[in-house]
Amino acid sequence: MRTKEFLSKLEHDRIIRAIQEAETKTSGEIRVYIQRGNLNGDALAAAQKKFHKLGMHRTGERNGVLIFVAPRAHKFAVVGDKTIHEKCGEQFWLRVVEAMRAHFRNEKFSDALVEAIEEVGKVLAAHFPRKGIAGNELPDQIVEG
Q1: For position 50, what pLDDT does the model report?
Q2: 49 by DSSP, 3-state: which?
């Protein structure tokens, strides 16, 4: 699917609200990145590279999570920083990806992203509850590139 078509089907405001809602309960940070054009190679490797390019490894508690989607290649991945990965493990990320896959097959792209954000938000809140009035370390907008 062309990226432009994919983006036109996304409910951007709903996805951003889901990120903001999830982040009200945690010090963790969640971002969604949409890859434009082709993606040759592994989505997880591309997501890890983008995670660092976006500076997500610089959060105070190393608890950022990136949901990476390459619509044209029909690939996606979820990457968590060091401390959240240590808390939830590889199986958690695989479950989130599998749940997203089911929605993507039915072209329910916004549902896939919102549910992934909600699941990630629950885990972040359990391990990194929000303490007082913390600032937003990273923007909540969907990133395209």
Answers
A1: 97
A2: helix
